[in-house]
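Why this split exists: single-chain examples teach little about how molecules sit against one another. For that reason, every record in the complexes split bundles all components of an assembly together and asks for one structure covering all of them. Below is a record exactly as it appears in the raw files.
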Amino acid sequence: MSSSAPIPLIPAAFGFGLRPLPLAPLALAIDLVVRSVARRHDGMFGRLGPHSDKRFLIDPTDLPFVFVITPHIGNPSASVARSAEGLDFDARIAGPIAALVGLVHGAYDGDALFFSRDLVVEGDVEAVLALRNALDDAEIDLVEEAAAALGPLASPAQQVGKVAARWIEWMTGMAMSRPRVHHS
Amino acid sequence: MTVGKRLDKVELVCPAGTPAALRAAVNAGADTVYCGFADETNARNFPGLNFSRKEMSESIAFAHGHGAKVLVAVNTFPRAGRPELWHQAVADVAAMKADAIIVADLGLLAYAAEKHPELRLHLSVQAAAANPDGINFYVERFRVRRVVLPRVLTVSEIAAINREIDCETEVFVYGGLCVMAEGRCSLSSYATGLSPNMNGVCSPPGAVAYVEKERELVSRLGDFTINRAGKGSPMPYPTLCKGRFCAGKVTSHIFEDPASLDASELIPQLIAAGATAFKIEGRQRSRSYTDAVVRAFRAAVDAVATGAPIPTGMLASLSEGGSTTRGAYQKTWR
């Protein structure tokens, strides 16, 4: 499940090419995924405890935008900005997008990313630890979460999304899905 | 007894900070998983970590259903005059039919032995029992069945202890190291007022701060700056014992270099020394870490059983400081 390969980086030219794109569609997608995660994994809030109202700045260092996520039970929210400048947040979690996505999927160990400096945290460290542990226990798969947000289209969307995720994983080395585990 | 015969009894004891990590450990080949409740009764009391009573009960059922055991750590020292939280934890472990409870405190051992005589007692590393006299006291007085040995002993010292005691010994084979005698370290409480011994947290995250400036990462614990890591330099845990300090004209890791214990190549010697259980540290780590380390040590133990070479070097990326050590098992500084 764990990967010891170097963290893949988005090529700088590709990241530069994303700069002119409008943020609204991305903001909508992120908000849908965050709401889906909060709805389908409400056990996370027990682990987040008093930190569920904190504002987490997620900073993919190889992409030209950042996210601010507030898990808040009952009313989770997410927004997107071009940079962290001027944003109000409690904690910042920064690293290549592959590290951040791989962390959510359980492909990487957060402490190991921290040791290697692939991941940097600032601000409320207690809140970051609570979030990391809550996400790790929730065994989230972002494609499943995105598909679930589409209601009646969930099943076909998941099938298409899984194919796309496997293709992206093959092309880039990013951990695009949750490793298979036996739960029975 | 030969190494081959002892191998039949060797037990791989693996960490779990969450139910997901417990399932990962069991699926990866753990014989036994150890974990704790989400409160001050266990020495990994970090935010978002550990098990509710319901999660613990369900996780024990999952492990037992897959042929694995569960040990529950109630291994902090109760506050004087307020032992209720710890007593309740002992009662709950007994009611949940966990395979053993891991305890450090003398009073709590006495309580568990008297009130729950059916409950198998393991002595936590936090008790720092490092000689036959100490261990025999716990065995005779409280019927302790296994002692987790402190990480200050050589392999030959472990063998000498095992010759003079009548209980099982569990030794650490992988994970974070403490330079201090476990259960006696006061560095965290000196800097923050909270300690692993009493509160279950070493370097509580509420007292930790990181600031990144021009690719230099500075870590602080309470009022102390404990590390400045330049671009590309590994960053250790924010503990005083792993900090870099100036002494004279030299800046270095004065107490301890950040590195993880990796005793995989010593498994045959540790078995020959009489160890019956191999413990992996890391309840605060992710299910990804649990899966990788348990699989690596399952492969190592199985390789010893078949006489194959022990696979090594698979865990460097998970190690603190990106490096590993055999710790005190081979004291090259003596």
